[in-house]
Amino acid sequence: MRKTTTTPRVQRLAAATIALGSCLALAVPAGGATAAAADPVPAVFFGDSYTADFGVAPVNNQDSDRGWCFQATENYPAVATRHLADKDITLDVQADVSCGGALIHHFWQKQELPFGAGTLPAQQDALKQDTQLTVGSLGGNTLGFNRILKQCSDELRKPSLLPGDPVDEDTPAAECGEFFETGSGKQWLDDQFERVGWELEELLDRIGYFSPDAKRVLVGYPRLVPEDATKCLTAAPGQTQLPFADIPQDALPVLDRIQKRLNDVMKKATADADGGADFVDLYAGTGANTACDGADRGIGGLLEESQLELLGTKVPWYAHPNAKGRDIQAKQVAAKIEEVLNR
To answer: Strand 91-96 and strand 278-280: pairing?
Structure first.
């Protein structure tokens, strides 16, 4: 799999950005940047279900197609914005376009909603010339984490809201650990990681093009599996299902290594970004709040009932942040935004 972004395209983006930036610089009086520091910061949030905080109720836009994004009214962008306001840092949120199921390329391509509910415009359409801050998470769906989970679970292979098919449905779920570390499974995973890397580069380039003054903050994913995976052999308080349902015990460290690799790819994308970008390392900061940390868990178990209800039935968390996890996301994201804006 090869990167499709061409050198001429990148050169054109860079040239346009330099030209636009020069015009903006001429329009700002001396000392303007310092004087504007206390002004509201125009911001755009983007991302997938981990930014939308799938599973946390109530949900925004319930009377429109965007209701199928399952974007929580109190997702981490909303909570982080309040944390910052308490410190006299005001975000002028121009848009929060995070949507469950979004892949990286939905940043520049329309996204089809489930059940034929319609399509959403590219997330980049929310960017403005005066946007000064962009924050969000994308990458997990492009990697195919749902497909990876289904490869490892007979329960998840049953019909459900969780999209995607197993990577290889002919390979039993019980063999998924070996599958992803050898042969065709490993090759599939390597190809997916390559795609994630260059598509994240494209995403960051596009933010720089459409919003040349914006600080770019890419948010990683909270840790799902603890270092001590034997914790996952115990159900959380009040639960009957194990946190990872029927996923084999020997596959859990493999899932953790896959997630750590995704975290590293995302971190590298920000480190390599032209003009600089920042990374919120949630994986490193949530090791005590995984799906297997009982009452301290920040991740709802695969089949644990979430706060959402659809057609009278509770929807599972499918390993997404619960309210505690959302608050952890918000705290760490707010801290990074404060750091970035105060440089």
So the answer is: unpaired
Q: How many CA atoms lie within 13 A of 175 on its CB side?
A: 10
Q: Is there a catalytic annotation at residue 49? A: yes
Q: Which entry of 49, 98, 137, 211 is annotated as an active-site residue?
A: 49
Among the listed residues 139, 144, 220, 320, the single catalytic one is 320
**pTM for the predicted model, two decimal places:** 0.88
Exposed e or buried b per residue across 171-188, where buried means at least 16 C-beta atoms within 10 angstroms of its C-beta: bebbbbbebbeeeebeeb
Question: Which amino acid appears at position 316 of this protein?
Answer: P
Given the residues 55, 101, 139, 325, select the one marked as catalytic. 101
Cα 44 from Cα 339, distance rounded (Å): 17
pLDDT higher at 163 or 269: 269
Q: Is 197 a catalytic residue?
A: no
* Choice among 16-25, 135-144, 172-181 with the minimum mean pLDDT: 16-25
Annotated active-site residue 184? The verdict is no
320 is a catalytic site residue: yes
Rounded Cα gap, residues 337 and 204, in angstroms: 17
Provide the mean pLDDT of the chain.
Answer: 91
